[in-house]
Structure formats: structure tokens, C-alpha cells
Amino acid sequence: MKRSKTALQGYLLIAPLMIGCLLFYAIPFVLVVQYSLSTGSGDALYFIGTYNYQDVTANHMFTLAFGNTMRFLAAALPLIMVLAYAIALLMQKHANKHKLLKSVFLFPYIMPVVGAVILVELLFAETGLVPGIANAIGLPMVDWLGGPAAFGVVLLLYLWKNTGYSVILLLAGLVTIPEEQYSAADLDGASGWQKFYYITTPQMWYSVFFAIIFSLINAFKCFREIFLIGGTHPNENIYMLQHFLNNSFENLNYAKLSVASVLLLIVVLIVFAAFYIFVRKKEAFRA
After folding, report:
1. Spatial separation of the C-alpha atoms in residues 199 and 181, rounded to whole Å
2. Per-residue pLDDT tens for 222-248?
3. Domain of residue 105, CATH code
């Protein structure tokens, strides 16, 4: 009887959360899948199978947006992980001595979106600091925000804004590695590379996993800055999948919106699952 009462109390405590997940996540997801496989709206909704998927994947704007998004992720994720890991390793031995420095790393991350956009405008607009310096030293003029260089600017903005957050995540994993292991390796004459490969790397897989997941999430959040910089129809080099989703929503094209959302979810889940399986195998091998 006591166990049943305790179980009932547990169910009551999680009920608000479960109801919220059902109303705001599960049901909308089912509706998105339904719209992606149907045409029409309301009572006049007819099942048409994968026709919408064929139509969207043949759409030039979708392929452009999807390609740019994958290109951005392929460039941003390795760069931010290498940069963040290098900084975290440099700070490893002094992590507890410079706690204020760790707070400084988070300043770009917590900066309001508008503030980040204003900074980009001050640096890379036609009358900005970078074009001014380039013009002063005789370099050719570059359209930093309206041409192919805009992709590099967006990538740089992402790295500046989110690297600090990844450093904190990786540093949290590094400080849990016992110092005695490095001391023992020093006595055995191990080099810095050997200590990194045989001591640090095997114990950092879960930290790296979470850092990559949050970096992936933050990469999609970067659309806010891109949208404010380039608008609904920016230069084709920074026309991302979120632009396609936003424009489909504004045009009330729920079929395209739903298909693009489902395809994006599938790609994210594949990346997540692949890396999670890889990390689990590494951890199982270490155990």
C-alpha cells in the first residue's frame, strides 16, 4: 500500500512535465509528419505518400539551403572542437586558479543577439573597420556581408560566440582526470603526446560527446544572427535551412515546412546516433 502511494505521488509530480511534453512536443511532431505525407488542410487533408518529399528534394532552394547548412556544420563543428579542446588543455593545470577567466569565456555566449549583430556590422559592413583597414593598405574591396565572404564571417561569428562554452564543457571533463596518472606517466618518461593519447583522450569521450551535441545545437541557433544580418533572402552562400523553413512558414506552405523539418530531424538523429555509438564503443573498450 505504501509503495503504491509513493508511486502515485511520483506520477503526480511528473504529470505536469509529461502533459507539457505531450502537448508541445509529441502531438505537434505527429502533426508535422502527417502534413509531410499529405496535401490540403483541415478536413480536406489527403494522404499522398512521399510525393512532398520528392517535390522538396527536387527544389533548388531546398538543396541550396540544405547544402549550405551541411557545409556550415562540416566546417564549424571540427573547428570549434579543435579550438576549444586546445584552449581547455592549456588551461587544464590552472583551471582552479583562474576561475574568473572561465567566466570571461562565457561573455560572448551570453551576449544578446542584437549586440553580436551590431558588432559584426561595425567590423564588416561597407563602412566598417575591416573594409576600412583593407582599403587603407590597398587591398581589393570585398563585400563581406553580401558576397561569398559572408560564409566566413558567419563561421567566425559562430566560433567567437560559442567556443568559450565548449571550453567550459571540456574543461569540466579534464579536471576530473586524476593528476596522479600524469605524475606516474612522467616517472615512466612519457611524452606530452603519449599522455594526451593514452591518459586524456580515453577519459574525455563523454565530455567531447556533450560538447559536440551542444555545439551542434548552438550551430542551429546561429540562424538568428544570420537572419538579422542578411534578412529572409540573404546571399546564397549563407541561405540556410532555417531560411527555407521560415520562408515556407510565411508562405503558409506547411507541406514544405514539414518535409524540411522531418529531413533535418533525420540528419541530426543520424549524426547523434553515429557519434553516440562511437563513444559507447570507446568507453566499452576502455572498461
Report:
1. 7
2. 888 888 887 778 888 888 888 888 888
3. 1.10.3720.10
